[in-house]
Design goal:
disordered C terminus, elongated, 13 strands, 24% strand, 42% helix, alpha+beta, 5-stranded antiparallel β-sheet, 7 helices
């Protein structure tokens, strides 16, 4: 091996170890990010369990108790409306900021607590077309995320069918305002947290700009159903970003993310955090340098192999 080849080999080794060092630093950063995501996933997994216990299991348990009361089962008996109203008030006290109402078998509201400070309520309104009522033909209870047609506010509608004997006579509905859930999702750790519906639509988030964004792909047919039902009062549903393996890209910024079951059927928590290496000074320069070093090392290796096998003299280079 001549002097030129030796110098090329030395340069190749130096460049190789420089590239290895840069690659190791990026790999270490990525592993640290994954560790942070796993830690966040554990923390928010506990929050998801709390949401499930308080908002899903607790609410449905209370509705189950209410529908077992004979006074509630006598939906058509308007003389008992005052007593029914008092029971609904207890529900509202249990879940502050909520609205409770009773619907008859035609979907008309017979008794309702106020949905605002002015005392306005849903009494007399017919919402038979809403899935929280129409779905009770097939389900004992239903959870429906929507923007209220009258109140114009986001809420989770929990409904439970009322049965007297074996006859369906109506439904009890509890609308939970989304504000309390949003407060639980907010944090100061730089982590974005979003509560997603079974369709993958973000209905509540630590940052309001992500509300009504989709994480999962929704078929055109399903999107038409959502639009036609006016579930979200005409709000535009858009994709949150591009998902590629373990990276979520939003507005050209990469995020690490994790999806956690929120307990109730199909509901999930999406947690995502801006990749820390993206914030590193000269990150793009480091990426370019690493690629350039790999290219140079490969070129040097080709030259050495060529000179070794074909005996090209150094002055010919």
């Amino acid at each position: 091996m001549n002097i030129c080849s030796k110098n090329i080999l030395k340069a190749t080794l130096i460049l190789f170890f420089c590239g290895l060092l840069i690659f190791g630093l990026l790999l270490l950063t990525k592993r640290h990010e994954q560790y942070e995501v796993n830690a966040d996933k554990h923390t928010w997994g506990l929050i998801a369990n709390q949401l499930d216990e308080y908002y899903f299991k607790h609410v449905l348990s209370e509705l189950n108790f209410v529908t077992a009361l004979k006074v509630i089962q006598a939906v058509e008996d308007t003389s008992k409306n005052k007593e029914v109203y008092e029971i609904l008030e207890l529900l509202v006290v249990t879940f502050p900021g909520s609205t409770a109402f009773i619907m008859d078998d035609k979907g008309t509201v017979t008794v309702s607590t106020p949905y605002n400070d002015k005392g306005d309520n849903f009494t007399g309104g017919n919402f038979a077309f809403r899935p929280y009522f129409s779905s009770l033909n097939e389900h004992e209870y239903f959870v429906y995320p929507a923007v209220g047609m009258i109140s114009k506010e986001r809420g989770l509608y929990f409904s439970r069918k009322i049965v007297r004997g074996s006859k369906f006579v109506g439904a009890v509905v509890l609308k939970i305002q989304i504000d309390d859930i949003v407060r639980k999702l907010k944090n100061e750790n730089g982590v974005n947290v979003a509560l997603m519906t079974p369709d993958g639509i973000i209905f509540a988030a630590s940052d309001n700009k992500y509300v009504f964004k989709t994480f999962f792909k929704i078929s055109e047919e399903r999107m038409k159903e959502i639009d036609n039902s006016n579930q979200f009062a005409g709000e535009k549903i858009e994709n949150i970003g591009e998902v590629d393996r373990d990276v979520l890209t939003i507005d050209d910024i990469p995020y690490t993310y994790a999806v956690i079951n929120a307990g109730y059927s199909g509901w999930k928590l999406l947690i995502f955090k801006e990749k820390s290496y993206y914030k590193l000074p000269l990150y793009e320069f480091v990426q370019f340098t690493l690629v350039a070093l790999v290219a140079i090392v490969l070129t040097c290796i080709v030259i050495i192999i060529y000179k070794y096998f074909y005996g090209v003299k150094s002055e010919d280079l």
